[in-house]
Design brief:
Family: Belongs to the Nth/MutY family.
Strand content: under 5%
Radius of gyration: 21 Å
Cofactor: [4Fe-4S] cluster
Number of helices: 12
Largest sheet: 2 strands, antiparallel
Enzyme class: lyase
Catalytic activity: 2'-deoxyribonucleotide-(2'-deoxyribose 5'-phosphate)-2'-deoxyribonucleotide-DNA = a 3'-end 2'-deoxyribonucleotide-(2,3-dehydro-2,3-deoxyribose 5'-phosphate)-DNA + a 5'-end 5'-phospho-2'-deoxyribonucleoside-DNA + H(+)
Oligomer: single chain
Keywords: 4Fe-4S, DNA damage, DNA repair, DNA-binding, Endonuclease, Glycosidase, Hydrolase, Iron, Iron-sulfur, Lyase, Metal-binding, Nuclease
Strand order of the largest sheet: 1-2
Shape: globular
Length: 312
C-alpha cells in the first residue's frame, strides 16, 4: 500500500504551543510602492484596499506579488514545520473515504467516526456490500449521512469493479468515482501517492484571496492562479500550510491578526483583532494550547491528540 506523509524536513523546531512568535506589523510593500507606475517590472501593477495600509491602495506588480507569495510560503514552513493532513488514515482507501466524509464537517468529527467504520468495513469490497442503513448510522455524526453513504457505496463498488479493489493514483480515474471531485482527488494524490496537487478548500480559497494572490472565487480558477505562482513540487505542502494557518490563526470571521507571524506580509492585516493579548485568545489547536484534530497525529506534531468520540 502506497503511503506518503507529504512532509518535508523541518528547518526549525516547532514554536512553543503557548507562545506565538513575535509579530512584525508592517506592510509587505514599502510606502513608496503606491507611487510605482503601472508598467512596473514584472507586469502591470494592481491596486486593492489593504487594511495593512490603513485603507490606502495596496499596489504591487505581478513580480512583487509572486515574490511575496513565495516568501509567505517559506515563512509558513517555519511556523508549521509539522504541517500534515489532518485526517487519520493508514492507506489510500481510508484517506479517500475520510476525505469524502469531511465535506461540511470537521476533520475531528471524521477522525472520531472512522475507527468504527474501518473496523467493520476495512476494504472496498466490504464497504460496497454494506447495508445502507447500517452505514448511514455509523457515519451519521459527520452530517449529510445519506448522501455520503450513497457516495461511499458507489465509489467502493467502482473500486471493486473497475480498479481491482485498489485506489487509483491518477487524477482522471479518481474524479470518475462517485462523490470524488478535484479537491478530494488532490488530497489523496498528494498524501497517499506523493503526487503534487493543490487542495482548494474553503480555508485555502479564503486565505489566498485575503493575501491578494488571486481574486478568483471558483475553486478551479483559484487552483490555476495559485499553481502559476509556485513550482509544482511545492503544491502539496503549500496546501497543508495554508490550511493549517487558516484553521489556527487566520480565521474566517475574526482572524487573530495581532498574533499572526506573517502579518508583515499580509495586505489584509487589521481585518481581525490586532491587540496581541486579545488575538492570542483566538488561537486554536496547538497554537492555542488545545488538542488537535487527529486522534493519531504524526510523531512531530507538537500538540495534543484529539479525544475519541464521547470522551470528555
Amino acid at each position: 500500500m502506497a503511503k506518503s506523509t507529504g512532509r518535508e524536513p523541518a528547518a526549525k523546531k516547532p514554536d512553543d504551543a503557548g507562545k506565538p512568535p513575535p509579530v512584525v506589523r508592517e506592510p509587505a510593500a514599502s510606502p513608496d510602492a503606491a507611487k510605482r507606475p503601472a508598467a512596473a517590472k514584472g507586469g502591470a501593477s494592481t491596486s486593492v484596499q489593504g487594511a495593512a495600509l490603513g485603507g490606502k491602495p495596496w499596489r504591487e506588480s505581478r513580480l512583487a506579488m509572486v515574490r511575496r507569495a513565495r516568501r509567505t510560503n517559506r515563512e509558513l514552513a517555519e511556523v508549521y514545520p509539522y504541517a500534515h493532513p489532518e485526517l487519520d488514515f493508514e492507506n489510500p482507501f481510508q484517506l479517500l473515504v475520510a476525505t469524502v466524509l469531511s465535506a461540511q464537517t470537521t476533520d475531528l468529527r471524521v477522525n472520531q467516526t472512522t475507527p468504527a467504520l474501518f473496523a467493520k468495513y476495512p476494504t472496498p469490497e466490504d464497504l460496497a456490500a454494506a447495508p445502507p442503513e447500517e452505514l448511514e448510522e455509523i457515519i451519521r455524526p459527520t452530517g449529510f449521512f445519506r448522501a455520503k453513504a450513497r457516495s461511499l457505496l458507489g465509489l467502493s463498488a467502482a473500486l471493486r469493479d473497475r480498479f481491482d479493489g485498489e485506489v487509483p493514483g491518477r487524477l482522471d480515474d479518481l474524479v470518475s468515482l462517485p462523490g470524488v471531485g478535484r479537491k478530494t482527488a488532490f488530497v489523496v494524490l498528494g498524501n497517499a501517492f506523493g503526487v503534487p496537487g493543490l487542495t482548494v478548500d474553503t480555508h485555502f480559497g479564503r486565505l489566498v484571496r485575503r493575501w491578494k494572490w488571486t481574486e478568483e472565487t471558483d475553486p478551479e480558477k483559484v487552483e490555476a492562479a495559485v499553481a502559476a505562482i509556485f513550482p509544482k513540487k511545492d503544491w502539496t505542502m503549500l496546501s497543508h500550510r495554508v490550511i493549517f494557518h487558516g484553521r489556527r490563526i487566520c480565521h474566517s470571521r475574526k482572524p487573530a491578526c495581532g498574533a499572526c507571524p506573517i502579518a508583515h506580509l499580509c495586505p489584509s492585516y487589521g481585518e481581525g483583532e490586532t491587540d496581541q493579548e486579545k488575538a492570542r485568545k483566538l488561537l486554536k489547536y496547538e497554537k492555542g494550547g488545545f488538542p488537535g484534530q487527529r486522534l493519531k497525529p504524526p510523531p512531530d506534531y507538537p500538540g495534543r491528540p484529539a479525544p475519541e468520540l464521547g470522551a470528555r
